[in-house]
Amino acid sequence: MPTNSSPSRAAGPISLFETPDPPRPLVVGLERADYTKGIPERLAAVRRAYGRGIHFSYAGVAAPTRSGVPAYENLAHDVEAAADAASAAARANGCLFTHVHRSIPWVEVVGLQRDADVIFTSSLADGMNLVPLQAVIAQSLRPAGERAVIVTGKGAGVASAFAGFEQDGLVTVDPLDPAAMDATLRAAVTGELPRVSDRLIAAVRSRDARAWATRFLNDLEEARC
Question: What is the sign, positive or negative, of the torsion defined by CA atoms of 145, 146, 152, 157?
Fold first, then answer.
């Protein structure tokens, strides 16, 4: 495993698993490169955190989607500019920063979700956003005291579907509120927020697609009677 301590944006997938010396909290951003995901807003918060001297490593992956659509090409330019600014801030702060615009193997997705200390999602609006739920299950492989904080945009369905779990490691934030983004990221990195709990893990496991389908079909049956 490489141990180069300089920040990088162009390195290959293995760089996403680099370990700085000394070890620092790992913040992970992981989603499709879609305008609903709030990627520039999140990268701006990461840049500001580095500018304030907060030390952490960042690994970001934005999987390409809808190639050839002008609006998405414009988004790619915005993300590129935000990532360049965050990378420069990380370098000035002596921290590792990696952001790649490509799909990565599923085993690496799970590895990032498992190893992260903060899962930082920031959807502006989303039907559900499965990344936080996947991360909860991946984090269940770790001891309770070593699990991550999962941050999700308040406009994502997961924020309403799992309302009431804020003290169980699922924290909501307004991606359009820079002050809230800054405060939430800082608190997550410095260990001031609750980590993923057994209660949240149990809730995610019990509210899977099969449970939803069963409930939906039962509702249909009741409506037919």
Answer: negative
